[in-house]
Design goal:
By secondary structure, this protein is α/β, with parallel strands linked by helices. The protein has 8 helices and 7 strands; from the N terminus they run βαβαβαβαβαβααβα. It has one domain: Spore Coat Polysaccharide Biosynthesis Protein SpsA, Chain A (Alpha-Beta Complex), CATH 3.90.550.10. Helix content is about 40%, strand content about 15%.
């Protein structure tokens, strides 16, 4: 059973990985600050610079000087959006973390759809409906989500979307993550389920990019994700077989 806790967090961090997002990151940070200041008692905006080669880090550094609610983390090398997000969530001081990208396709105001759900959940997955991406990205995501949902019994439709998660879940599960690819959200969710955390899903608004361009789909990244899927399946199946872990 989940131990008693306040139904809603008093503090929330918006965690945004950023790779070459100089065109949108300032607006994303400012919009995050606006939404958080109106929604919770305490808050932080954590931008994880994923080895950007443009002015992304410099822009966030300047914003952090203006407002001490803003923090810049340096990933050190290009580790990918999901690994960068996990790094940011582990570094957060707040009671809950809202992970979104810094391209504003998921606007920070979607936090307002997710926050009330924490009254009866520990881990809130978002479902982009409709998804404003090119057809080939939507098709690949649909196939991937169908496969992992079938193989692992995940109760979600959009495992690569943003999440709102209690920090205690990250503290309990993040150290158990064995993969380093874009399979991280699947493993994170599967392990949270095994620990008995309450999972919910919320439909959110997904918007076209306001600036910049999406990263290309790199064959090596796809192969790494598929490799992590194949390597992780036996252990994740054992977790399902053995039932919830003791917390």
């Amino acid at each position: 059973m989940t131990e008693s806790r306040p139904p809603l967090p008093a503090s929330v961090a918006i965690v945004m990985p950023a790779y070459n997002e100089e065109a949108s990151v300032a607006q994303a940070v400012r919009e995050s600050l606006r939404i958080l200041s109106q929604s919770v008692l305490d808050y932080e905006v954590i931008v994880v610079d994923d080895a950007s080669t443009d002015r992304t880090a410099a822009i966030v550094s300047a914003l952090a000087i203006e407002d001490d609610h803003v923090r810049l983390l340096d990933a050190g090398r290009n580790i990918g959006a999901n690994a960068a997000a996990l790094l940011g969530m582990r570094a957060a001081r707040s009671e809950a973390c809202f992970f979104i990208a810094s391209d504003l396709q998921i606007h920070p105001d979607q936090l307002l759809r997710c926050l009330p759900v924490l009254a009866h959940a520990d881990y809130v997955c978002t479902w982009r409906r409709p998804r404003c991406d090119p057809w080939h990205r939507r098709w690949m995501a649909r196939v991937y989500n169908d496969v992992v949902r079938f193989l692992l019994g995940l109760p979600t439709h959009d495992v690569d979307s943003g999440i709102l998660v209690r920090k205690e879940v990250i503290a309990a599960v993040a150290s158990q993550i064995r993969c380093s690819s874009d399979f991280i959200p699947v493993e994170l969710l599967a392990r949270a389920m095994n620990h008995g955390y309450r999972i919910s899903e919320v439909r959110i608004v997904h918007r076209p990019r306001v600036a910049g361009k999406p990263g290309s789909i790199v064959l090596l990244s796809v192969l790494r994700t598929l490799g992590d899927l194949a390597r992780s399946l036996p252990s994740l199946w054992r977790l399902r077989r053995d039932g919830p872990a003791t917390r």
